[in-house]
Amino acid sequence: MEAGTVATLRVVREAPFGFFLTDEYEDVLLHHTEIADDMDIELDQDVEVFLYQDHEGRLSATFTIPTVQIGKYDWVEVVEIKKGLGVFVNIGLRKDILVSMDDLPELFHLWPNVGDRLYCSLKTDSKNRLFGKLGTEEVMRELAVPADRSKFNKNVSGHVYRLLLAGSFIITDEGFMGFIHESQRGEEPRLGQKVEGRIIDIKEDGTVNVSLLPRSYEQIDTDADKIYEYILGRGGSMPYGDKSLPDEIKKRFNLSKGAFKRAIGKLMKEEKVTQKDGWTHIKEK
Question: Which PANTHER family does the protein's record reference (predicted)?
Answer without folding.
Answer: CONSERVED VIRULENCE FACTOR B (PTHR37296)
